[in-house]
Amino acid sequence: LKLFPFAEKTLVGERGVSLSGGQKARITLARALYNDADVYLLDDPLSAVDSEVANHIFEKCISGYLRQKTVILVTHQIQFIRKASKILVMKEGQPVAVGSYRQLMDSGIDFMSLIKEEKSVEHNVVNEEVMVKSPIAEQFRTRTISVMSAHSEMAEEFTDQKVDEETKAMGGINARVYWDYIKAGAGPVLLTFSLASTLVSQGLQHYSDVWLSEWANREDAVKNKTASGNGDRDESHNVMVYSILIATIFVTLLVRSGTWFVMCIRASVNLHNSIFFRLMRTPIAFFDNNPVGRILNRFTKDIGVVDEQLPAVSYDLNLIFTQIIGSVVVVALVNPYLIIPAIFLLALIWIIRW
């Protein structure tokens, strides 16, 4: 922790991307110790560190801190088996022998040859490292020391670590966002067909109300004439016209809702594919600076809203908006003076809304 610029508060990136294998092993082991469990299963935690650090971990952690716990240690480091209370030797996935170190030695299992072989392998590795040593290695070492010293100076200069938060936009939505959504879901043909079906459907709905009003007025006039003995009542024509209007409204509503939801579904699919296409071609540095959870949130929560909530909400907006416009037009045809309070109410609603 002393090597980190902010000690235990240092951000190590998604899944410890900025840590080495040994640092990951030590941090994982420390997290396991914090749980204070009764049984610990350690799957070769000493393989990712050098021999000095491995010996320190074994002495201070496994033999010291966990001396009162049950510890099952899986390891290839044969130098530590002398201190084990029970040893299980495995070969190709099968148990070969079990017992204490003395019992296994008495049974004829030659650990010394394994230890010598292990030491010879380590000696060869050390010799290779010495042979590879060059001015380039010294240059890397100098750079590492410089980076560590820079981190130390940074830790002294800053007392807290800054985390880049996700950029979020609040308030009104730009009109370009709506236009991009429409373009993602509808081409010129589908957009024209959807707008036409919306206008025709809403116009027929209001025309049916006007026709019903005129029908009622004609019925009143016919009743007056019939009462005076000067009129005939023939409702077949009115019933036929009104029935045709209702059937046409039903068909246009189906077309209107169908084209609208097809446009929304296509927009959702195209936006998802566009995000996925760009994500697959983004540099690796993007994943280092952005947690996986943040990326998955865009593909789950946000896409879920676009799939489930946005089509229904946008269709309700379509219905309500065209209903208001149609009602204002009908009222204006009946009495033009009613436009003035209607405009005042619309302005008041707009002010309250925003």
Layout of SSEs?
Layout: H1 21-34, E1 39-43, H2 51-65, E2 70-74, E3 87-91, E4 94-99, H3 101-106, H4 111-132, H5 135-157, H6 175-185, H7 188-228, H8 236-280, H9 284-289, H10 292-334, H11 339-353
Parallel strand pairs: 1-2
Antiparallel strand pairs: 3-4
Main location: membrane
GO cellular component, one term: membrane
Domain ABC transmembrane type-1: 239-354
Provide a descriptive summary of the structure in words.
The chain has helices spanning 21-34, 51-65, 101-106, 111-132, 135-157, 175-185, 188-228, 236-280, 284-289, 292-334, 339-353; strands spanning 39-43, 70-74, 87-91, 94-99. Strand 3 and strand 4 (94-99) form a beta hairpin. The protein is elongated, with a radius of gyration of 39 Å. The longest helix is centred in the C-terminal third of the chain and has 45 residues, at 236-280. The strands form two sheets. It has a two-stranded parallel sheet. A two-stranded antiparallel ribbon has the order 3-4. It is mainly alpha-helical and 354 residues long. It has eleven helices and four strands; from the N terminus they run αβαβββααααααααα.
